[in-house]
Write a structure and sequence with these properties.
By secondary structure, the protein is mainly alpha-helical. The chain is built from 17 helices and no strands.
Length: about 475
């Protein structure tokens, strides 16, 4: 284990930050100190997603369905930006664990340059071919509504890319509170602006999209000030001397590309599920899935927040060769995550009718209330088991084994979930309800497989370390 301390000269502002000191201490305390702010931030941000759906629901079931068709592509945006952020954050935390501050700085600079390139590559084709894309994925009569919402979101993609990568850099150096404050600010602004733009200003679907882009833009400006102007972060940026380093790029993409593909896989799963739902039901079923999955994302938001802490803390431990800490990090985070999700699952089951009612206030959406209730009562069963899969996957990302994390996601989301949905809906003739049971079984089995793989991987690291043999990194 490398015990060399980080010196004050390593920091551009002449001092070690509190975040780095946290990472150098007890990993359980680090999980809580970094995880709790991100749990709060992710919860508030996903509440925004639910509020956004609530306000759009007042425009009718077609508007809800339109968001459902845009959402997979929005997830691709998130996939590219968060994937890059996870890759950069994992690499930075491992560099910091190895006491290589200069290396961490260079990773941060590379991540920003890559972010700019990716945002351009995504935005241009989406704006040009949006109509054809929405028609191809089955939007039908809701195509124009999907374009009203989607084209504005696509045009503002740069600010989403930037905020996700910047937040990952802050978290990688243990500054979870800074990332939390930025995320909460954006979400609260969005919650305030949504109803104003949609109804009083009469902008409808376009108003919901503009509220999102404007809120993200304000957040991006604040984060840029922190990173580039204030000189208070541990990681620093020097773009003037930037020369592409392919070893750093490969290190970022070793985790970032699989992380991106994980998100893309989940977006592809949503597209496939939409097609299955349309085959079983119609666009009303897509509206049910859209609303219901937004509720699911709020329910597992605490796990996503804790997962960001696991990536950072496990990456730091791996960087300093403290392999004995990894199983403690995994088991402790899963215990905390499972306890939280049990409570959320019970609350979801009990209040499912009230939640469904909140999203079916419009007369044109009232007829899907019972279907939303059914969805929520079924899928909440898998909330507690999600902790095993999601947090174990985060540990894989932290230690640089992004491909392992991707494989488990493919098994869970792209294979198990659609397969079980199809079997339950068609072969067992359970219809739309069978699709929801397919979601349940796919997620539970996938989580168990991920946990088992991580456990045996960490044990192999420990055995290799004890024998004085460095396990392949």
């Amino acid at each position: 284990m490398n015990e060399n301390p980080v010196t004050s000269e390593d920091n551009k502002s002449g001092h070690m930050t509190a975040g780095v000191r946290t990472l150098m201490g007890d990993p359980k305390k680090a999980i809580l100190k970094l995880g709790l702010p991100m749990i709060l931030a992710m919860s508030v941000q996903t509440v925004y997603n639910l509020v956004d759906t609530f306000w759009v629901s007042g425009l009718g079931a077609d508007s809800l369905a339109a968001i459902g068709f845009v959402f997979p592509f929005f997830m691709v945006m998130i996939a590219l930006s968060t994937g890059l952020g996870v890759g950069a954050g994992s690499a930075i935390s491992r560099k910091l664990g190895a006491r290589d501050k200069a290396g961490a700085d260079y990773v941060a600079v590379h991540s920003m340059v890559i972010m700019l390139v990716l945002s351009v590559l995504f935005t241009v084709p989406m704006l040009i071919f949006s109509k054809q894309i929405f028609m191809t994925v089955g939007a039908g009569k809701t195509t124009e509504l999907a374009m009203d919402y989607g084209n504005i979101i696509f045009a503002g993609s740069f600010v989403l890319f930037f905020t996700n990568v910047a937040g990952a850099i802050l978290r990688s150096e243990g500054n979870a509170k800074g990332a939390m404050n930025a995320m909460i600010l954006g979400a609260v602004l969005n919650i305030i602006l949504d109803p104003i733009f949609i109804y009083p200003l009469g902008m409808g679907m376009k108003g919901a999209a503009w509220a999102t882009v404007l809120s993200m833009a304000i957040t991006a400006v604040i984060m840029a000030k922190w990173l580039f102007l204030d000189n208070t972060t541990y990681v620093s940026f020097n773009f003037r001397d930037f020369i592409p380093n392919w070893d750093i790029i490969k290190d970022i993409f070793r985790v970032g590309l699989p992380a991106t593909m994980q998100q893309v896989t989940m977006a592809m799963t949503m597209l496939i599920m939409n097609l299955v739902i349309i085959a079983v039901d119609n666009t009303d079923g897509v509206a049910v899935y859209t609303v219901g999955w937004r509720v699911v994302m709020i329910a597992i938001a605490p796990l996503i927040g804790m997962g960001t802490a696991v990536v950072t803390v496990s990456g730091f431990a791996y960087g300093e060769h403290s392999y004995e800490k990894l199983l403690d990090i995994n088991s402790y985070s899963i215990k905390v995550g499972t306890a939280i999700e049990v409570v959320i699952a019970v609350l979801t089951f009990v209040f499912a009718p009230q939640i469904a009612l909140a999203f079916t206030q419009a007369e044109s959406a009232a007829h899907i209330m019972s279907d939303i209730t059914t969805f929520l009562k079924i899928v909440c069963i898998f909330y507690p088991t999600t902790a095993m899969g999601l947090l174990s996957s985060s540990l894989f990302q932290g230690v640089g084994k992004g491909i392992n994390s991707l494989i488990t996601t493919i098994i869970r989301s792209l294979i198990f979930t659609p397969l079980f949905a199809f079997v339950f809906a068609f072969y067992l003739k359970m219809g739309l309800t069978g699709v929801w049971w397919g979601l349940l079984f796919g997620n539970v089995l996938g989580g168990l497989i991920t946990y088992a793989w991580v456990y045996f991987y960490v044990r192999s690291l420990q055995k290799g370390s004890q024998k004085g043999v460095q396990v392949s990194r």
